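Private note to self, pasted from the team thread so I don't lose it. C-alpha coordinates:
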Protein backbone atom coordinates (compact mmCIF):
# COMPACT_ATOMS: atom_id res chain seq x y z
CA UNK A 1 0.00 0.00 0.00
CA UNK A 2 1.28 3.48 -0.84
CA UNK A 3 1.99 5.97 1.90
CA UNK A 4 1.68 9.71 2.27
CA UNK A 5 3.74 11.50 4.92
CA UNK A 6 4.53 8.11 6.46
CA UNK A 7 0.91 6.98 6.89
CA UNK A 8 -1.13 4.46 4.93
CA UNK A 9 -3.56 5.94 2.42
CA UNK A 10 -7.02 6.23 3.88
CA UNK A 11 -5.82 7.15 7.33
CA UNK A 12 -5.78 10.61 8.83
CA UNK A 13 -2.33 12.14 8.84
CA UNK A 14 -1.17 15.34 10.45
CA UNK A 15 -0.77 18.22 8.06
CA UNK A 16 2.40 20.14 8.82
CA UNK A 17 0.78 23.55 9.21
CA UNK A 18 2.58 24.86 12.25
CA UNK A 19 0.03 25.61 14.96
CA UNK A 20 -2.14 22.55 14.25
CA UNK A 21 -5.28 24.66 14.54
CA UNK A 22 -6.78 23.23 11.35
CA UNK A 23 -6.99 19.68 12.65
CA UNK A 24 -6.13 16.61 10.63
CA UNK A 25 -5.74 16.02 6.92
CA UNK A 26 -8.02 13.35 5.47
CA UNK A 27 -6.54 11.13 2.75
CA UNK A 28 -9.17 9.22 0.79
CA UNK A 29 -8.70 5.74 -0.59
CA UNK A 30 -9.13 5.44 -4.38
CA UNK A 31 -12.36 3.47 -3.87
CA UNK A 32 -13.76 6.24 -1.64
CA UNK A 33 -12.79 8.87 -4.22
CA UNK A 34 -14.48 6.86 -6.95
CA UNK A 35 -17.76 6.67 -5.04
CA UNK A 36 -17.69 10.40 -4.26
CA UNK A 37 -16.88 11.36 -7.88
CA UNK A 38 -19.64 9.10 -9.23
CA UNK A 39 -22.21 10.62 -6.89
CA UNK A 40 -20.99 14.14 -7.67
CA UNK A 41 -21.75 13.51 -11.36
CA UNK A 42 -25.32 12.55 -10.42
CA UNK A 43 -25.91 15.18 -7.73
CA UNK A 44 -23.33 17.87 -6.86
CA UNK A 45 -25.50 19.07 -3.92
CA UNK A 46 -26.41 16.02 -1.81
CA UNK A 47 -28.64 16.54 1.22
CA UNK A 48 -27.80 15.65 4.80
CA UNK A 49 -29.44 12.22 4.53
CA UNK A 50 -27.33 11.30 1.50
CA UNK A 51 -24.16 12.61 3.12
CA UNK A 52 -24.96 10.68 6.30
CA UNK A 53 -25.47 7.46 4.36
CA UNK A 54 -22.18 8.04 2.52
CA UNK A 55 -20.42 8.75 5.81
CA UNK A 56 -21.54 5.40 7.20
CA UNK A 57 -20.78 3.45 4.01
CA UNK A 58 -17.35 5.02 3.42
CA UNK A 59 -16.39 5.37 7.10
CA UNK A 60 -15.68 9.10 6.68
CA UNK A 61 -17.09 11.87 8.91
CA UNK A 62 -20.14 13.55 7.34
CA UNK A 63 -18.49 16.95 7.76
CA UNK A 64 -15.54 15.83 5.60
CA UNK A 65 -17.95 14.62 2.90
CA UNK A 66 -19.71 18.00 2.95
CA UNK A 67 -16.40 19.84 2.57
CA UNK A 68 -15.35 17.47 -0.24
CA UNK A 69 -18.52 18.31 -2.19
CA UNK A 70 -18.05 22.04 -1.56
CA UNK A 71 -14.48 21.82 -2.83
CA UNK A 72 -15.54 19.87 -5.92
CA UNK A 73 -18.16 22.51 -6.76
CA UNK A 74 -15.54 25.24 -6.47
CA UNK A 75 -13.07 23.32 -8.63
CA UNK A 76 -15.74 22.83 -11.28
CA UNK A 77 -16.62 26.53 -11.27
CA UNK A 78 -12.95 27.49 -11.59
CA UNK A 79 -12.47 25.19 -14.58
CA UNK A 80 -15.43 26.60 -16.53
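Design output:
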Amino acid sequence: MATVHGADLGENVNKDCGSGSRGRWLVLKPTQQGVLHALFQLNPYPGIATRGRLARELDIPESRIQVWFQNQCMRQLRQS
